[in-house]
Amino acid sequence: MSESPPPHRKLPSDITQIPIVWSYELLKYFRSWRLVASVIIVVAMLALLYVLPPALGRPYSGTDSQVTVWVQDLDSLNMTFPGMPTPYGIGILNKSVIAADSLVVYRDGTLYSSANGTNWIFTALNLAGELPSFMGGMSKVNALLFLQNVSGSVITATYEWSTSSEDFSGIFLAFASILVIIAATFFAADAIVGEFQNRTGYLVFPTPLKRWALFMGKFAASMTAGLMVVSLFYAGTAALSFVAVGGVDDDFLLSYLFAVEFLWATTAVAYLISSVLKGSTGATVLTFLMFIVILPIVDSVSTFAGVKIDASLTFVGGIITFIVVDPYPVDSVTDQFGFTFYMYYPEPWVAAIVCLAYAVVGMAVSMFLFNRKQLTG
Q1: Which of left, alpha, beta for 156 (phi over 0: left; psi -120 to 50: alpha)?
Q2: DSSP character for 104?
Q3: Considering just the CA atoms, what is the radius of gyration of the chain in Å?
Q4: Taking the domains of the chain in order of start, what are their residue ranges?
Q5: Within the chain, what is the greatest distance between any pair of CA atoms?
Q6: What is the pLDDT of residues 124-153, one digit of tens each?
Q7: Which residue from 66, 179, 185, 196 lies 20 to 30 Å from 33 (Cα-Cα)?
Q8: How far is CA 38 from the centre of its chain?
């Protein structure tokens, strides 16, 4: 009886090899403690950002008693108030959310009632586009509009207040772009150059595995690890926001989507740097400095030069924080100390296109360079 030949094993296709590379690369991140270290960084950031403001005397809610309200004469301000009487003056209450039913106003130490809106009106003002300098550039404020002449009087107020979900999210999201840059540096900066410097390419490249499949598997692993870190940060921020202020900002999810796209773009640029350089240390340092020092310097120059640099990846990355600001900030020019300062903000649709361009071009060029790069030595 003749033996039957062993069954022929068919090699996996290039497409099916991508998830295999992805799984092994992700396992490598776990074994090298990079992913664990990133999670520790996220937890530390969340803890510090949540604990430090109250510890330094800036709680998320409270009661202000007998706070002096500085009244600004509206004759010196070019402001109009449609639908209401023209007020004599305006006083800003520097808190984001104020319980109107808790507001009590005093004039020279004596209770000064609203008198059904004939003495003063409490309102929230949207001042985007007409930002008086005495308000510090704020675009949305809680204000007391005084309909009677209170010049020469000392106005004080007592009220309960809390931090808005917008302001709470802004505290955390101001650091989201830094976390994205850290993730791109940890998981992408040496992804390509490491195969050549560590000579692991001698084992991988001779196998029947196309380089483009290897590239895509490694890139998918870098993005997965980065997404895990960024998603943990946003999930933690959302949880803390519910605990501290009872909800999250309406544009919080949109900020997360922009953060994911920014991660995609920074990871692609990191792969490009990794494809060009010959050492892991150099690629890691250059990637980090590119996003933390070099491009931010370019962004800062635009403040003085009066040129909006939409092509800067770090400039458009600011959309992660600005998107939760309501109303969305607009470009402005101010003169201070004899200098002219230009404040620029990325347009959401421009930020989306620029990040997409960096991601696609960065991936395409780095894959091309990876395919041409040869092992030497």
Answers
A1: beta
A2: E
A3: 28
A4: 15-56+167-372, 63-161
A5: 115
A6: 876 554 444 444 444 678 889 898 888 889
A7: 196
A8: 17
